[in-house]
Automatic annotation (TrEMBL):
InterPro entries: Nitroreductase-like, Nitroreductase/BluB. It comes from Streptosporangium oxazolinicum. This is Nitroreductase family protein. The lineage of its organism: Bacteria, Bacillati, Actinomycetota, Actinomycetes, Streptosporangiales. It comes from the Bacteria. NCBIfam families: Rv3131_FMN_oxido.
């Protein structure tokens, strides 16, 4: 492999590490053999209680796969992707090779430029409106990856989503072991860890929006959190649900790719996203949402989209910690 190709492959892996993941667990590892990148699930980073099926872990890994694809296209190569290529190796989620050299894709370069700028938001949004044409673009981005993004227009449906989110959070907060699992991925102020949710990544005293979507309790009784945007974070934003027709491992990986494409496009236009997965981690609530609000499709992510002036930094493990090269 040439030095140029080695650089391309390494940049693609670096991009993958900046994908969003549940509680910033970064549940992936990578192997490079020649010019082939192998994306693997890291079972040690899966949430055993919140995510026993590994659904959220694979959505996270699907987002990482999207970053690899975008990086290769932005660097002038058509990615050759195989998803779940070996049934006898369930941890191997995908392999990607740089294919035919091509003109650098302008759209891919735009989204690739947002990979390290995109941030997960964990509070309310400003009252600045989200443009309707932009929402239509985000819907199209998800559809292009085989998933469906539905902005929730009905006030009643938004209230239902908020209510089940709060109910799930209340129930989960009473489960000591599950709460400890969440706390495991909370980083105290000044922590040098390269994973988990930073103390400055959520508000110290969150303002309630109407309707209110409950946030995770990462501080768990500690006076952690940020004071940024406390007087601006008053809007719920636009609530949206990402769904798929099926609910297999392949669907979860597909959902992750669609989600990341939506997030990067949103970031390119100044939008941030807040995620709410509590209700989707409880089978009966997820099934209720599938039947009553999602037209029988499987909800993979509940999110809020909006504008914020939060510019908190992100944390990631170094590439050397997640990459094995042959």
């Amino acid at each position: 492999m040439t030095e140029k190709m080695a650089s391309v492959v390494r940049r693609a892996v670096r991009a993958a590490t900046w994908a969003p993941s549940v509680h910033n667990t970064q549940p992936w590892s990578f192997g490079v053999d020649g010019d082939e990148i192998a994306l693997r699930a890291d079972s040690d980073r899966r949430l055993r209680l919140c995510d026993p099926s590994g659904r959220e872990s694979l959505i996270s890994c699907g987002a990482a796969l999207m970053n690899v694809r975008l990086a290769l296209r932005a660097l002038g190569y058509e990615p050759r992707v195989r998803v779940l290529p070996d049934p006898d190796r369930p941890a191997l989620l995908a392999t990607v090779r740089p294919g035919v050299a091509m003109m650098a894709d302008v759209e891919a370069r735009l989204l690739y430029g947002e990979v390290e700028r995109r941030r997960t938001h964990r509070a309310g949004f400003t009252r600045l409106p989200v443009p309707e044409p932009l929402l239509e673009v985000l819907v199209a981005e998800a559809g292009g990856e085989g998933a469906r993004l539905t902005p929730v227009r009905s006030e009643v449906a938004v209230r239902v989503l908020a209510a089940v989110t709060c109910a799930a959070q209340d129930v989960q907060s009473q489960d000591r072991l599950l709460s400890l699992e969440v706390v495991r991925w909370a980083r105290p102020p000044g922590s040098s860890r390269g994973d988990g949710v930073p103390a400055e990544g959520y508000p110290r005293v969150p303002r309630r929006t109407r309707p209110h979507f409950a946030q995770r309790d990462y501080a768990h009784g500690h006076p952690w959190g940020s004071d940024a945007d406390q007087f601006l974070s008053v809007s719920t934003g636009v609530v949206a649900v990402l769904t798929t027709k099926g609910d297999s491992r392949q669907d979860w990986i597909m959902a992750g790719q669609a989600l990341q494409r939506v997030l990067l496009r949103a970031s390119a236009h100044g939008l941030s996203a807040a995620f709410h997965t509590q209700a989707l981690e409880m089978f009966h609530l997820r099934e209720f949402l599938r039947q009553e609000l999602c037209s029988q499709e499987y909800p993979q992510m509940i999110m809020r989209l909006g504008i914020t002036f939060d510019d908190s930094g992100g944390v990631r493990r170094p590439v050397t910690e997640v990459l094995e090269e042959r």
